[in-house]
Amino acid sequence: MKPQMITLHINGRTHYVALNPNLTLLVALRDLGYTDVKSGCEKGDCGACAVFLNGVAVNSCLVLAAQADEGEILTAAGLGTSEHPHPLQTAFSDAGAIQCGYCTPGMIISAKALLDHKPHPTDAEIRDAISGNLCRCTGYAQIIQAVQSAAEKMDAGGEG
Amino acid sequence: MKYQVKPLPQVDLPELRTVGKPLRKVDAMGKAVGDTVYAGDYSMPRMLYGKVFRSKQSSARITRLDVSKARALPGVACVITGLDVPNARLVSDMPGQTGQKQRAGSDVPVLASEQVRFYGEPIALVAAETLEIADKAVSLIEIDYEPLPGVYDPLEAMKPGAPVVTPPDNIVARWKIRKGNVESGFEQADLIVENTFRIPYQEHAYLEPEAGVAWIDERGAITIRVSTQVIEHFRTIARAVGVRQNKIHIQGTMVGGGFGGKEDITIEIYLALLAKHTARPVKMVYTREESFLAHAKRHPYVITHRTGVKKNGQITASKIEMISDSGAYPYLSPYVLLYTTVMAPGPYRINNVQVDAISVATNNPYTSAFRGFGGPQACFAYEQQMDDIARQLGLDPLEVRKVNYLRTGDCTATGQVIESAAWLEETATRAMAALGEQSPNYGSVKIGQGFASYFQSYGRITWMHDTSQAWVGLELDGTVTIRAGVPDLGAGQANSLCQIAAEVLGVPLERVTIYTTDSALTPLSGTSTATRQLYMSGNAALMAATAVRNVLLNRASKYFEEDIEALDIADGKAFIKNDPSQTLNLVDLAKMCASEGMHLSNLALFKAPFTDPINPETGQGQVWPDFTFGSFAVEVAVDTETGEVTILKAAACHDIGRAINRAAAEGQIIGGGMQGLGYGLMENLIVKEGVIKTPSLTEYLIPTSMDFPDIQAIILESGTGLGPFGAKGIGEPSLTPAAPAAASAIANALGVSISEIPITPEKVLAALERA
After folding, report:
1. Which domains does chain A have, with CATH numbers?
2. What are phi and psi of B31, to 5 degrees?
């Protein structure tokens, strides 16, 4: 298969890369070092690989890298750092919402996608928003609390 | 409220500064911002990609294996078959209950060369320059099989003339309990209740499939960076690979979920062999489907209870038979069977007990550790049995249990005295109270409430002589370093040690850094299994931190000219308790100690109680250090037209001894409870003729955020555990009572019980038809 040149704007950096056209965005991102994007099933069942593509949360295992050509990609690592975390990252850390942490980056992407549109979600709306993100550790309760807590902080801080 | 909440005895636990607080875990932010590097995230220069070629038959002789085309493919660095590594076997230690010290078939060939015994059994390994080439090479391996008769039902496998998986026979393990005299117990009974329960497989379904990278370092040591619950497998790997134990170096990573599924050796043995044969770094990551095929499952059981009871519910005799499906190789089946055997009668005081348990080899997927380790299967059976006893006697389920619940000072069926608090009625009444008033029935929907109580060990079997080490040191800037070989599965294993050291050395948690999970560089802390890390390594960290604290207090006592007892350390300062204005900064104190050559670090080793093995004929003796007790309550709505079950409310109440991090403890209770509810209602691993028909998360459904309501977590703290500050363990116990509680609520709603999980709509409708 002939490689194809594509441009990916990831977390504010631009990558110009030759990729096989059958490569998924998940594999492309991980090969480029964005290993915060997790691989759990490679078929859209688990949500661990969720990223923003042009502002829309997608499972990166279900998108070909070539389809993302010229796209703006935001991963969980692009939201914040341990020095300057995003309010969702702070809230997840403080609420006990993180156990093994493997679902966390994808979960945070889905939570942000919700808060971008609904700054004051109900618990039911949060459950619905993260229903495509499997977590085997937490039983979800502390994740839902974390999203609520982040929503409050973001509202108070004028963010979101 | 259905039941009066039983008051708790007075417990005076000292107020602590750090321990018990729901602080941010030390590893949380790294995971939130994507800094944490998991096993599959590592790459090495000149790295190859490994793949496993697996059996497509569940019972067959290999008549031809030809890897020449795979070897000839450009980009393939090596192909290894069983003939290349004839000594590569994983030996599982077998206790003597089969009458032979080392039963034939109890060790597992790393690569099958003559015969395959289960679908997915590894046959060859490939390493290639790219993943695509490795995949291609696997597809070029040619194999011919001569199918052999297989056996897929443990009951069939026990019959004379059944196909034998591994000679001499299919009996993998037996355990027995003989206490009192069950026949005379049955004679005293007013009623005898008999039921058979069927309990299925469960798949761990951790989000992180098995992954790792191995290479040979400058010492010639095979270094393996892997996601594992047990870094101490380096010894077994050394034997299988044929190198010295100090030439295998395991660097464990943060584990993306384990639950027992990363307790046995997974890919690290393949990585070690491939790195050794190629002398290059090799990476291997399972796909989700391969993960389903490759690792063990929770054991299916058939359990029959025959119980004699008086009219008031008092149990006079309990006779229990259990059969578990070990699959093609034993792995930890004998130990899991021991757990199920000893927990079989439940947390009840019974003078006459007979248990006969047997684990049987089949050509099904092999089974081994899964959170609860045989306890959940036992609990499902004994709690359904208690409910049926209550139904048949016309008594309330709590009344029947209250007559029989174990209390402190009572003996288990193996004669082990319960020394810690046994808060069973206390937890049952609180869990049920948390449900509140039962919702009314509507239309075809019937509402029911039910609960289950349990006891579950924490810490390993006491004749395994378990130990754990931790190193704690105070740095000259007043920060604290911990070194401990503790694999962190996400439950807060590492963080707990930090909170303990912060408490003892009087520093904020942010000033504590822990280095973990390196078989060569961190003191060995044992396995992250058996709900043992807080108990074992927590005590080791407490001992080490206390030793450092004593050095500091000794020096501070000279400085203040006060007795040690008059001093304390908190908030980064030593001070006089009666006059807290007189302080000495920890940094200055540390420098004083260092300049005088005082030891500011300590390596401690904690030992569990060491006992002799139980008597194999009677099962009598101590088996574990101690037990956790608790209860789980559920309210369900069952649609009698569709069979659909909806959980409306769920509450879990456990005496965890003492919470070290309250948020983490709640996370265990809720998360474990959710896995238990999934086990009871949803998770359905379909295996036909040894083949898993549901090898993905599309087909094997685990709970999503939409399936169950929040589980209310009620933490009780008796302070009577053997862990640091009186802690017990909660990692595994959290799961155990959830499925039987859900089954109990469904039976309460329908008036008919269902003796087999998962309780799917089909089973509900079938039960209604029977009623």
Report:
1. 4-78 (3.10.20.30), 82-157 (1.10.150.120)
2. -75, -35
